Amino acid sequence: MFKLNLKIALRNLWKNKGFSLINIGGLAIGLASCMVLLLYVAYEWSYDKQFSNHDKSYVVYQNMEASGKTFSWAWTPNVMAKEVQEKIPGVKYASHTTYPRKQLITAGDNKINSNAVFADQNFIKILDYKFIEGNAATVLKDVNTIILTSSFAKKLFGNENPIDKTVKFENGDVLKVEAVIEDVPANSSLIFECIMPWALFEKHQSWVKEGNWGNNMCLTLVQLKDNNFFTTANGLMHDIYKRNQKDNTSVALLHPLTKWHLYDDFQNGKSVGGKIDQLKIFLLLAFCILLIACVNFMNLSTARSERRAKEVGVRKAIGSTRKSLISQFFLESLLITFIATVLAFILIEVSLPYFNNLLDIKLTIDYHNGPFWLTFVGLMVITGFIAGSYPALYLSSFEPIKVLKGFTLKTDSSASVRKVLVVGQFVFAAGLIICTAVIYQQLNYVKNKPIGYDQSNLIQIAVVGRMNDAAKIELLKTQLIEAGATTNVTTFSTDFTEGGDNTTGIEWEGKNPNEKISFNHRNIGYDFTETIGTKMISGREFSAKFPNDTASVLLNEAAVSMMQLKNPIGKVITFWGDKKLTIVGIVKDFVVESVYQRVAPMIFRVNGKDDARVIIARLNPNQNISSSLAKIDDLVKQIEPNYPVNRKFVNESFEIKFKNEKLLGTLSNWFGGFAIFISCLGLLGLALFMAEQRKKEISIRKVLGASTANILTLLNKDFIKLVAIANIIAFPLAYVIINKWLSGFEYRVSISALPFVAAVGISVIIAVLTVSLQSVKVAKANPIDALKYE
Amino acid sequence: MIQLNNIEKYYANKGVKNYVLRLVTTTIKQGEFVSIMGPSGAGKSTLLNIIGMLEEPTYGTYEFLGENVTSLNERKRIELYRNHIGFVFQAYHLIDEMTVYENIEAPLLYKKIGSSERASRIADLLDRFNIVAKKDLFPNQLSGGQQQLVGIARALAAQPSIILADEPTGNLQSAQAEEIMELFKKLNQEDGITIIQVTHSEKNAQYGNRILHIADGVVKEDINVA
Questions:
Q1: Which residues form the ABC transporter domain (chain B) (predicted)?
Q2: More confident residue, B102 or A500
């Protein structure tokens, strides 16, 4: 029986090619979308979980209260690790590490600016990277050593064995390659290409040697012997700052390593989510798409019930039980799902590179991964059962006498079930249209929001090596302008589009002494406003004309309003306890950190001897950009030939700030599109069914004189009603969801009518087009074809 | 074999009972060939459906092979379909997706008959009805008469003791109809299969040995044909 049923199922598929195509295509797209989203979710989910004891590892977070808010970050003092290791019970390892930063590593003529971390030995015990060469137990002991990742080793040495070869660090120290580890997985919070000993870091930065509980400069990782120790350990962590430095009000806490990536949003010192929220949306989206694909299948199968009804009747009359019919229909749906799965698999393989490129991630199908296959097969079987459940139960319930006597489909419960299903599909589709539209509006709004300076043609050059010299920078500045490549040049103490130093060590007259206010703190060069294209609200900026500017300070508008200063110019503030600085100017607010948040208070001091980290230059608008850039590279090379030129456009790095929202937009756009497409297939199925059901009615109407247009209106009316109902249901749902999403942004669009109008418009147009595809055929058919069989 | 006692069937519509069958009482013995005749709407098909347990009477009792089957659960009814009753329909009702061979095989599969036994029975039937050459064709590739032959072959495959045929020749041309009726007669006489058919045609009724005339749901005449 099984064999025969399988054969019949295949024949059925072949006989109704159109139907099969819609059915399989819909399911395949649904399955593929679901799988890709699941792969993505799994990718994000497995962040930092590659390590053996990842569940016992923790990141030390610091909560600091300032400006009435609690700031939480994984920056800790260098002495934290030692203190934790010695004083906190249950701690197996505690390590301090720098965050990855660009460092120049040279092997022969190969000069590579690589992502490097400085770490102690405990670091590679907590995060047990896989060693390809070298001994994990002995590395990082000697000062002049380095561990490379395999791809970085290849970049430096080609195919030669790198062990015991030497590289140069920042054109100075000669380091021996001790070990090679596997590349750091792309889904790690710490991405680097080489590890160097902490001792080397201390050697280069002498201030690191001194323990200072007030300077949060590195990452502290902790591994517990057992998670039973967590509560006590975390409790003891709480006051660790206070115990070591009396007036330090910071609070430390252990944040699980596995939550570092996904739960990175802290409010009032507690983790309140983060990327996990977005991930949940994607997970929901994945299953909703699959569900609509299943609904589609149900719709299409039951729409063809008239054809199958006779078979059911006959089978029952020759001795089939309902159970065997149910299993037959399940077999058919599983067969279709199987074919769809194979197709989905191909779709995934074909689209993954594109998808990876789009989202800038590295998703791959791991063919040796058991859970992957389990999920894949599980998904297939579940889909087959969900999709097949309603048709199987519905079709097998036919009574033989009714279908054999001459089957007439009534507008019975099954038709209304199908209507509900289609409405459900379109609720989802309309909701997605609305959400996608609002996401795009928000993205556009934030992108077009004035950021306070002019990004275009602004470049940033990293200050490296010999450029760390005020005189050299001054020389370069003059040369750049003289060469005509740039119009204005200034310097800045951090990367221009990233966060950086902040401080609470500022006092002024009228300040509430108990309140801590956090200020961003930057050093800038001369000609700052002109270069970045902003302006002074009042006062003046730093200039070579005022040699005493080391005792001057500029504020941004946010700082002025935070400090509640009436006439700020000329006022004196106390900086870091002893420096008295006079306010000489107010700079217009501009965005360096999050585009979604209000600009934070910022104070500017003039760049000292060697604290400029980047040079910011505005390209000469009258010159060809590529030749300007070539000139710039050339001039920089002349001053520091030993480093590759690290230059980038400010607007390009600024774009990165939108990465998360762009990703959300792109994904919801694509998968929303798929969802709508699949819903359309479902609608097409319903239209086919209705047309078949009303064939006789339409023919009679035509005989009575109805025109094709009349008939089309008649047929479309019902569907437009369904879509309208779906929209009405979708509106409040989408409103609530998107409002919740928007509430996460300080700057946000107000929800307008436009997305809703768009949803109605798009869904109605799509519905009418889909339905007409089928109804035109019926409306134009010769009435006698339908009537003569009565 | 079949004992019907005061079978009544009516549909209640807004309190008004529309009778289809009234107080039908009759006995059909093993080996009879009964034709049920009467004008349209007389209740012929309903009576046949009740005999075939496709419908339940509203009132009265029905005994099949000495067992009361007036209202039977599905499992038992299917058991009877598998072992005792074969249906032949006016519209043939072959399964379009199955070949001739598979159509005949289907009831045997439901009856869980071993594959060698199946093959020999089907070969026998194909041979007997001269449709060996057609065994791999699909129903829509056959003429009406051929389809009905397959329909009968399918009904016979499970070796039933009774065949219920609802206007088996209603959709056929007269030559083909004659062929089918001859076949029924032969099955009845040579194999001793009980046959009950519903027919409009006086001529077809003559092939059997008993005619039940029904009008307005009542058995008007019960004639034995010589």
A1: 2-225
A2: B102
Residue A697 pLDDT more than 80? no
Q: At what angle do helices A708-742 and A695-703 cross, to 10 degrees?
A: 130
Residue A109 shares a structural domain with residue A2: no
| pLDDT confidence band for A398 (50 / 70 / 90) | confident
Check if A11 contacts B (Cβ < 8 Å).
Answer: yes
Going by C-beta distance under 8 Å and a sequence separation of 6 or more, which residues neighbour residue A87?
A236, A240
Question: Per the structure block, which two tokens stand in for A486?
Answer: 């740039």
What are the tokens at A391?
A: 């048709």
As for the ipTM of the complex, it is 0.81
Domain hosting A225: range is 54-261
CB A481 within 8 A of CB A641: no
Are the C-beta atoms of residues B97 and A304 closer than 8 Å to each other?
A: no
Are residues A143 and A225 both part of a single domain? yes
Q: What is the pLDDT of residues A195-226, one digit of tens each?
A: 999 999 998 888 888 888 888 889 999 999 99
Residue of B nearest to A5 (CA): B98
A315 in contact with B, Cβ within 8 Å: yes
First to last CA, chain B: 21
Which pTM does this prediction carry? 0.81
Angstrom CA distances, A438 to A37, A443, A739, stand at: 21, 8, 9
Chain B positions touching A321 (Cβ under 8 A) are 74-75, 78
Say if residue A703's pLDDT is above 90.
Answer: no
Q: Is the pLDDT confidence value at A515 over 90?
A: no
Of the candidates A15, A311, A319, which has its C-beta nearest B95's C-beta? A311
**Same domain as A64, residue A201:** yes
Please answer yes or no on whether A404 and B93 come within 8 Å at the CB atom.
yes
Q: How far is residue A605's CA from residue A521's CA, in Å, rounded to a whole number?
A: 8
Number of domains present in the structure of chain A: 4
Q: What is the pLDDT of residues A445-476, one digit of tens each?
A: 888 888 888 888 899 998 888 888 888 888 89
**Structure tokens, A647:** 């230059």
CA distances from A258 to A56, A58, A59, A346 (A): 9, 8, 9, 32
Report pLDDT digits (tens) over A297-330: 888 887 777 777 888 888 888 888 888 889 888 9
Same domain? A483 vs A596: yes
pLDDT of A554 = 92
- In the DSSP assignment, the letter for residue A319 is T
Q: What is the pLDDT of residue B196?
A: 94
Cβ proximity of A558 and A604 under 8 Å: no
According to CATH, what is the number of the domain B32-42+73-224? 3.40.50.300
User: Which distant-in-sequence residues (6+ apart) come within 8 Å of B142 by Cβ?
Assistant: B100, B134, B150
Residue of B nearest to A314 (CA): B93
**Contacts with B45 from chain A: Cβ below 8 Å:** 405
Q: How far apart are CA A621 and CA A487, in angstroms?
A: 8
In a shared domain, residues A500 and A391: no
